[in-house]
Amino acid sequence: MGQAVVINNAVVMGDLLLVDTDRSFTGQDGVAATRDEPGVAVPGKVAARLFELDAAIDHVFVLQNSVTVRRRGGWDEQAKSGALAAIEGFLLFY
After folding, report:
1. Please, are residues 87 and 8 in contact by the beta-carbon 8 Å criterion?
2. What is the number of helices (H) and of strands (E) in the chain?
3. Which of 66, 33, 27, 63 has its CA nearest to residue 49?
C-alpha cells in the first residue's frame, strides 16, 4: 500500500493533458510510451494503466513528476477526470 499521488496542476492544451504531481516517476531521463511499446518499470506501468483506461489515449511521456498524455480528439471533463484519477491512485496499488 502506498500513498495517493497529489495532482499539483493539470492543464489541457489541445490533445495534450499536462499533469504536474508531487511524486517522481522517473529519474532525470524522460520515458515515452505508446500502445505498441508501453515500456517497463514505473513509467511503463503508469502508461499501461492510462492506455487501459481510454482507447483514445495513444501516447504518454513521463518525466520525473510530470505526466503528459495525448488523447486523439481532445479532452472532455470525463476523460480528464478519469486520467487524473488513474494517476492519483497509481502508487496505491501497482
Report:
1. no
2. 2, 5
3. 33
| C-alpha cell recorded at residue 74 | 481532445
Separation between Cα atoms, residue 34 and residue 50, nearest integer Å = 10
Distance of alpha carbon 53 from the chain centroid: 11
Report the DSSP beta bridge partners of residue 61: 32, 68
Separation of alpha carbons 82 and 76, rounded Å: 10
Encode pLDDT of 24-76 as tens digits: 999 889 999 999 998 889 999 999 999 999 999 999 999 999 999 999 999 99
- What is the model's pLDDT at position 94? 53
